[in-house]
Amino acid sequence: MTAIATEHLTDLQHQLHSKRLARDLRSRNTPPELARLTHVLARYHDQIAAGFGVPHPQNTGVRDAADRAGTLIKQAGQLLGPPADTPAPRSALAQKLRAASIALGCGLDLLSTHFPTAPDQATSANAAVIAAPDTARALLRQLSTHTATIAHLSSRTTPPADQACTLLLKAAVLARIYSENQPPPPITAIPLHHTPARIPPVIGENHDQALAGIDASIHRLSNPISPASVTTWRYLARAAAITCDLNVKAIQQLIYRMKEMNEPAHRSALQEAVTSTKQTGKRWKEIVRRWDEQTNHHGHTANGPATDASDLIIRLGRLIHADPAWTPSPRASYRMKPPEELAPDLTQAARIATVTLKTIEACNTLASNHRSAITDAAVLGILHKQREYPTHMPRVPASARQLSRSYEAAELRGRHTITTLAQTIRALPPTSEDDPDEVHLIIHRAAINEQEQAFLTATEFPALIPNDTENPDHPATPTATAIPPTRKSSRR
Fold this sequence. Notes:
By secondary structure, the protein is mostly helical.
């Protein structure tokens, strides 16, 4: 049944540039048929999101994507208006849309027969296969093509139905991205038991208060409580670059202090750490540059993650600068605290170095959790192209792939910096009994699955890994895929 629907919709793709189809699309009878088809697609996404009543334990990502795409499709359906209820379509276009709706609806009904609708009914032997992750991804991938086709058709209807195009394209891109076969990570991250409340920075904080505020900001950035946006992603990247620059200054002050204390071994280790931190900062500046090229979504963001990043920058800057009211601005004071004041002894030097280690790990957390950022960048890039070429099917833009690689490079360099700095800290006297264990835990988190990074990057962006079973020691390079383009036909 889905093959029949695909045949009808493919035929409409081939006729997308014809004058006759353009005339039919402007007819008032077309939006109700498109609404009927979107209603069927929304039902499919709802069933995938619910696992057809028997959700698979390893299918969480696909279910979440289906739920989000289904919500967008329902919103588009509201713009298209009520579904068609006429007994017979009045145009060739409406007939094909009606046929596609019926075929897809019958296919969904056939799938639903394998699952019980009452407690006394048995589950079909094929139910487990239908609810399996691979099947759900394949179905979601097929539906993404249908959704994109409807989006292009709706874009050529009359207002307000044409506004459904953007929502449907977003749903198509989202479904296509998450329909790729993504191997689950072998280690499940354990979330924080409690997200601490924000501690706003105030002028005149003592050293312990400043460190407590820094820890709170780091924990909140590791577990954001509010959704991000394109403006937020740009701001967080810039905040990470500033954080790396402040860490470079802090470590350089420790190097001067080690020279004063005649500690050549610690000084040499810190010198290697400052070099690595500078490289990490350069990776984040590259991400900022790519975000600046990606979109014109500028402005100040005021949501939770951005505020936490701002708090972290202010406290870290006041920790190392002589001005107690220091804030990041072109007029900010460059005068640093004297090395002997910042680190009067080796124990305090270890404490400052541990602060830089934690903040670098916070930046690495931002780099490793950038999947939503890349999705947002891909959607914006596709929509931008769609305005230029409204009749083309969407493709994942190269700029989004480049941005993804920049995040991966920042994460890789951040792990190296963490390892280098942590080894330096472990050679210094511990500031408390818990510090050695905390530093060891940070090292462990940075080193987890480093050898399998090539496989894990497949979960960062839509990609296929061909022939990955032929040579497990050398995984294939991920290749981004996208929704196939529409073939143009000659004008009639």
